Structures are given as structure tokens and as C-alpha cells.
Automatic annotation (TrEMBL):
Localization: Cell membrane; Membrane
Coiled coil (UniProt feature): none
InterPro entries: NADH_UbQ/plastoQ_OxRdtase_su3, NDAH_ubi_oxred_su3_sf
Regions that span the bilayer: 6-28, 63-86, 92-115
Record key words, sorted: Membrane, NAD, Quinone, Transmembrane, Transmembrane helix, Transport
Entry's family note: Belongs to the complex I subunit 3 family.
Name by which UniProt lists this protein: NADH-quinone oxidoreductase subunit
PANTHER family reported for this sequence: NADH-UBIQUINONE OXIDOREDUCTASE CHAIN 3
């Protein structure tokens, strides 16, 4: 297995072995588990409360907006931590500082836009 495709063949073989182990475990589980369905077991489970009514409910859009804002801050943190480790390295001083302030400026611009549209009010 030397050569260019040798490492790919090794990865494919390990992937096939992993898939076979998982499939075998799932198949053994299906063979060994008890199967006694009852109407109570087949009902929808909602946090320990019996389901009442239909399964459709409205939710407000602002919850999704808060989720998107959280994702923006999470992405911001993902970029800030590596930047903080590289900032002190020689040769990266002022350039990385300016680039990070440009990035934070775009993030701040998005937050100001959301604030001006009154998205951040919780009423």
C-alpha cells in the first residue's frame, strides 16, 4: 500500500471497519431487545406532560433573531481566541490589530442595525 493512493486506501479500510462495527452493534441491539409496543409507549412524550391538542404552536420571530445574534457572537468569539494567541507573535502587531478592529466594526454595525430596528427589545 505504498504510493499516492495507499493512505487513501487505509482511510477507506478503517472507515469500512468502523461502519461495520456500528452496523453490527445496531443489528445486535435489534435482535436482543424486547419488542412490546403498547398504546402508552407509542404516544408523544412532552417533558412528562400528557400531550393535549394538536402538535402545532406559534412562536414569535424575535426568538429566532436572538438565536441569530447568539450565533454572530459565537462566531465572533471563535475568531477572537486565535487572534489573541497570534497577536503577541513577532511581526503581527499593528496589522492584526487593525484587521480585528475592522472585523469588530462589522459585528458592531450589525448590532447597531438590530438595535435601530428595535429587534433587541424583549416585550
Amino acid at each position: 500500500m505504498d504510493g499516492y493512493f495507499g493512505s487513501y486506501a487505509l482511510v477507506a479500510a478503517l472507515l469500512a471497519i468502523g461502519v461495520a462495527i456500528v452496523a453490527g452493534a445496531l443489528f445486535a441491539n435489534r435482535l436482543l431487545r424486547p419488542n412490546r409496543p403498547t398504546p402508552e409507549k407509542l404516544t408523544t412524550y412532552e417533558c412528562g406532560v400528557d400531550p393535549v391538542g394538536e402538535g402545532w404552536a406559534q412562536s414569535q420571530v424575535r426568538y429566532y433573531v436572538f438565536t441569530y445574534l447568539y450565533v454572530v457572537f459565537a462566531v465572533d468569539a471563535v475568531f477572537l481566541f486565535p487572534w489573541a494567541t497570534v497577536f503577541d507573535a513577532p511581526g503581527y502587531g499593528l496589522t492584526t490589530l487593525v484587521e480585528m478592529f475592522v472585523f469588530l466594526g462589522f459585528i458592531a454595525l450589525g448590532i447597531v442595525y438590530a438595535w435601530r430596528k428595535r429587534v433587541l427589545t424583549w416585550t
